[in-house]
Specification:
The complex is a heterodimer. Chain A contains seven helices and no strands. By secondary structure, chain A is mainly α. Chain B has ten helices and 19 strands. Classes of the chains: A mainly alpha, B alpha/beta.
């Protein structure tokens, strides 16, 4: 996970060469790496390393949204792998579906200059996703217990 | 479904970036928010599918020894759980002991297990503090991965077996007696052994091993005990008065009474005459077992009725003899010339010949008046109507039988004890 963080932070800084945000990208990469090393040695937490990489990728969006998505995909895959959640073929297939959906969203968002319109779409979509999760949880409970008491 | 600490970090990050996107009108921030939230939803769906797989492959076999115990007894439980934990998940199984039966030794929860097929064996002991037929509450399976945990409650009938039968416990002091220091033995349950063998009976736990007849036992393949001829003691009648189902009565009171009755019956049944048991609820005779030697039958008739509905109530019932005594007292009094007393006397004179005794009065008279019945022991909760106890006391006094009464500590108020002594019970004590 630390290697993925290093690659993404360095990649985002390199991608911004010649851009006005380059010094900011280098600074963000250095801070993320330093914090990442600290987290790695003091209290190893893969989700924390994943979240620490986000500011570097945030700046990459200015150069290329697809490159940002690629870095995110690398980070998410590394996170799942390091947590032991990417072992079977089913895991890989589900992750691939998730990343394809996210890639489509990146494409959709890259053509937008304002937040309001995509947000108006995503909020109902998030509600639906919550309903799906709750329905699945209820179904699992009922199947397990033959009804709750 | 519960989120782990790192998942909460993801949720806050997603919400933070979403707010930033909204206020700063930043599309990349919106992308990151959607990516992180989508990642959590993707993991949640995957986790629930796997949890469902784990739940559908679980089987539980539970063995409890003994399945029939007394209140406060410890039951040893062996639970064998077969479980298939999918890749990426870990599981923890917890057995849920019956209500009122805390775990006293061992662990009812398994340690956390990783992916694969497992057979978990749990061994623990529960102390049965509540009485009756008690069942397990079921089992809980806690499945978790790095992002979520989920408690699956298994409450179906196949996860609640076996049923443990717990008999209530009470103490029955047979040595309390009459006299200033209690020196006169009232109950005399002990057989004074003679030399000749009077009969044989089945061995029961608690019998003196020296009284086992080994020759007869070897011949029939089960243990027989010799009963010696000799001077036997008095022949007590045990009356158990169960509480009225229509009146609220704390379960502890009923348990105390039934426990004391069981304790007394266990002792009496080994006696020369067996145990004569009368189970009543108010003025309703529920069962009568004269000279019963089978402890099983006695236990069954004691535990068959929990809190029965009293079909007959005998509030304000007047015994014909008591009414006649009242009439005689009234006719002899000085105030008979007043109009009220005269009218009352007239009412009694016309009314008394028509009074028919209640069936309960006849049942009591016949039960107490059996040949050899020389002591009456009544165990009651002391709640609700007491008229039937007065009837019992009266019949005992008429037949010259010593009557004693036991009631729980919680209801043994001084006024009630005084009242019960007044209606014919020579000993009123707390059981």
């Amino acid at each position: 996970m630390l290697a993925a963080l290093l690659a993404c932070a360095a990649g985002s800084a390199v991608a911004l060469v010649g851009n006005a945000a380059f010094p900011l990208a280098v600074s963000a990469a250095a801070i993320s790496l330093g914090a990442g090393l600290l987290v790695f040695w003091v209290f190893h937490s893969d989700p924390a390393l994943f979240l620490l990489a986000q500011p570097c990728l945030f700046l990459t969006w200015e150069t290329s949204p697809l490159l940002t998505f690629f870095f995110e995909a690398v980070l998410a895959s590394a996170l799942l792998f390091s947590m032991g959640l990417l072992h079977s073929k089913t895991d890989v297939a589900y992750s691939a579906v998730f990343l394809v959906v996210m890639g489509c969203m990146a494409l959709l968002l890259s053509g937008q200059s304002h937040v309001f319109f995509p947000l108006a779409i995503f909020v109902p979509a998030a509600g639906l996703a919550c309903l799906v999760v709750l329905g699945l949880a209820y179904r699992t409970m009922v199947r397990a217990g033959g009804g709750t008491q | 479904m519960e989120a782990t600490r790192s998942t909460w970090g993801f949720i806050f990050a997603a919400l933070g970036t979403l707010l930033s996107a909204w206020f700063l009108d930043s599309v990349p921030a919106l992308f990151f928010s959607v990516f992180i939230a989508g990642f959590l939803v993707f993991r949640a769906i995957l986790f629930l599918r796997r949890a469902g797989t784990a739940a559908s492959f679980i089987t539980v076999e539970r063995v409890a020894k003994p399945e029939w115990t007394r209140q406060g007894g410890v039951v040893t439980v062996s639970t064998s759980v077969r479980i298939t934990v999918p890749e990426g998940l870990s599981a923890r199984f917890c057995d849920l002991p019956p209500p009122g039966a805390p775990v006293v030794h061992g662990q009812a929860c398994s340690p956390e297990t990783g992916a694969g097929d497992h057979v978990l064996n749990l061994r623990y002991g529960v102390s049965c503090l509540s009485s009756g037929n008690i069942r397990w509450r079921g089992a809980d399976l806690l499945v978790s991965d790095r992002f979520f945990s989920f408690l699956l409650p298994f409450r179906g009938d196949n996860f609640r077996s076996p049923i443990i039968r717990v008999d209530p416990v009470g103490k029955y002091q047979k040595r309390e007696g009459l006299g200033f220091f209690g020196e006169r033995d009232l109950e005399k349950l002990t057989v004074l052994k003679g030399t000749g063998v009077r009969s044989f009976r089945d061995y029961m736990p608690g019998d003196d091993p020296r009284s086992v007849d080994w020759k007869l036992s070897a011949k029939h393949g089960k243990l027989f005990v010799r009963e010696y001829a000799g001077l036997s003691g008095t022949h007590p009648l045990l009356v158990v008065d169960l509480p009225d189902g229509a009146v609220p009565c704390p379960p502890a009171l009923r348990d105390t009474v039934v426990g004391a009755a069981l304790d007394a019956a266990r002792e009496m049944v080994t006696g020369p005459h067996g145990c004569s048991l009368m189970v009543i609820s108010g003025a309703n005779l529920l069962s009568f077992l004269p000279d019963e030697r089978s402890l099983h039958k006695i236990e069954r008739s004691l535990l068959e009725y929990h809190s029965p509905q009293r079909a007959v109530q005998c509030f304000r019932t007047l015994d014909p003899t008591a009414a006649e005594a009242l009439r005689i007292r009234l006719s002899g009094s000085a105030g008979v010339h007043r109009s009220l007393e005269r009218r009352l006397l007239l009412v009694y004179s016309r009314f008394i010949p028509e009074i028919r005794p209640l069936p309960f009065d006849i049942q009591c008279a016949k039960a107490i008046g059996r040949r050899g019945e020389t002591a009456l022991h009544v165990l009651t909760t002391g709640t609700g109507d007491m008229s039937h106890l007065a009837t019992l006391g009266l019949q005992a006094r008429r037949l010259g039988v010593e009557a004693s009464l036991g009631l729980p500590d919680a209801t043994a108020t001084p006024s009630l004890v005084r009242r019960l002594r007044g209606i014919g019970y020579s000993i009123v004590r707390v059981v």
